[in-house]
Amino acid sequence: KNFNVTVGSLTTEKQLDTVKKHVADAREKGASIFTVDNIEKEKQGLFHPLTVIENANNEMLVQNEETFGPVVTVTKFKSVEEAITMANDSSLGLTASVWTKDKTKAHKIAAQLEVGSVMINDHLMSHGLAETPWGGWKESGYGRTHGYLGLEAMTQPRVVIDDIMPGLQKNMWWHPHSKQVYDGLKGGMNFLYSKNLSLRFSGVLNLVKVFLRSFRKD
To answer: Which of 129, 175, 202, 212 has the least CB density, counted as fewest CB within 10 Å?
Structure first.
């Protein structure tokens, strides 16, 4: 164990190659790359330098694909509205962070971001909160783990319906059907939704006739 390591390594060589590919692509497309490289060369392993990519845009892989590495992009914007539009201009939507001293503004911005989790003045920590649902929008997946939504996803819903009215022999819509049944059910809809008082009154009368039929065995 080395407690002097503040940022861990990548988990696979393939992922390290992806990070390097994204950084190289951004450089080729005009971005400025800033890195902090204090990795011991003889113990390099799967570590990648902390990297900031300035002047990133959506033509770059790092803005369109999942990098999953110690890389942050920086893009200028002229207004909060523009920043929100830029953030949402993506096929991905797992997490986002809003950094500001104005908590009211932060919550307004968070409500407009197309992501599964938004952290205010923090990042990614919600994944460690077992009570908060975890998941993304768009191509970042569907469904949720953690929280009550995650628990519900592991269940099989079952509906049990039972009549609670005593003496009921059959439901209004059971066979045999007739014009009286049709008029009664239609009358129920007119009673509930029609704006015509006459239709509502006649509707409830027809409904009552069919309802009383439910107490007969024939």
So the answer is: 175
